[in-house]
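Sharing a chain and its predicted structure for anyone who wants a worked example. Both blocks are below, sequence first, tokens second.
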Amino acid sequence: MPSCGLLCVNPSEAEYLRKLVNGLSAKEYFLFNSRLLVVPATGNFDAFFCAGPAVGAAMAVLALEKLIALGARQILIYGWCGSLSPDLKIGDLLVPFEGISEEGTSPHYPLAEKAQVNVDIRYDLITMLSEKGYAALEGSVWTTDALYRETREKVALYADQGVRGVDMEFTALLTVAAYRGVDLSAVMLVSDELWHADWRPGFKDGSFRKHSRELVRTMVEYCRDRR
């Protein structure tokens, strides 16, 4: 399998990704409750893989472990996150470098030091996004298994610590990647704002969905054009 590829966390984006790369002669394989698609090299373009969905830490790690066993060495994650900070609005991009874990999967992968995203890949992603017209902020992410226990108290606590986003997969994926000795980076689209007195969702809006699919295409182009 190609060493570099994209894992789309969300079911709707993973389905769009599948349709997108089917036009690139991708071969499709079973990957637990997910899909693996391998796009062959053509002309000046490298081969790469696409996978997803993988919602929640445990499911995401099942997919990641299989991808690593098959030869993945540079995994890019595309997903959504909630914003804990007023400087991140719905539709903005977050490129995380580390996270705070409140999920139950990463403790099974003990590390000597805290896992962090590869610096070179992170900067390369930010540069690519900037060249495409996207402004991406960096920051840390709070990952939780308990979607309905993102309380106002916790949001305020982590926001005070400078944490910018919240999701359900990132710290588990990053920890497993570090444990297995592979590189993993992520790009997250802000889907909702938790820093208001009332929760503000944006993921049902048509313009948000269009924006998200544009980013899926951008990430596919990044994998394809990385030479």
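Comments welcome. The helical segments are 11-22, 57-69, 119-131, 152-160, 170-180, 206-225.
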